[in-house]
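Q: what does this look like with zinc ion bound?
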Amino acid sequence: MTYGADYKPIPAISATSGEGVEVLQDLYCYNVRIVNICLVGNPNGNNFILVDAGMPGSANEIIATIEERFGANSRPKAIVLTHGHFDHVGSILELVEHWKVSVYAHPLELPYLTGKKSYPEPDPTVEGGIIAKLSSLFPNEPINLGSHVQALPSNGMIPGMEGFCWVHTPGHTPGHVSYFRDHDGTLIAGDAFVTVKQESLYSVLTQKKEISGPPRYFTPDWKAAWESVKKLQRLRPSVAITGHGLPMMGEELSTSLKMLADNFGRIAVPDYGKYVGQQLKH
Ligand SMILES: [Zn+2]
Ligand SMILES: [Zn+2]
């Protein structure tokens, strides 16, 4: 297993770095500097799943967080990924080595996780704030998990994550998925939409809560991204953990998500940038 050739630590931090929120009894959201990981499973048992794998250099922090919640030497049944961007797989090699667990991702994401294909370069020219301008520093070359990564089952289920199904939400990346639990409307959205303006240094530092489209500098297909937000809105989630920003729930979530789905061209799609199709703006 190897990280991409351009893998490196990224000095970025937010006000909620190192904080965890128990959103539901079996749903824990933990902020690794500027990105969320999610633990799905009851803390009284030892059957749980880790969703996404944090920033580069955070394996020890993730392991300690998990041991604090689930007990010494506990380990997830698997790591499931929303997508393979560097900030969602930043510590995955060390975690896989430590726990000897399988990783699951959408089949269309596998080339980016097995060293075959690089993501498009981040777009530092995109409309947005300072983080967008610094995004050329962000790694986009693929990691290689070799045989440790497998495709999510085609029937929509996730091994070890009963009650959830995966929902294909492309646009931000081709094989981006979100995870949805029908019976209580729990959504783990990944970067399909987020609750902080991820391009803005001020917003990221303060974690000011505001529904937002996928991080702009890394989103090449805005048409698909819009369809994905509409798809998630139709599920009527009652609580959402997103890849970046604070959890959102209830009325605030339903109102914000409807507003985003209805006005995606105005709110989410940047006014300019190398991946923007002008037909989406209105
Ligand atoms: Zn991403
Ligand atoms: Zn992200």
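The mean pLDDT is 95. The chain is about 20% helix and 20% strand.
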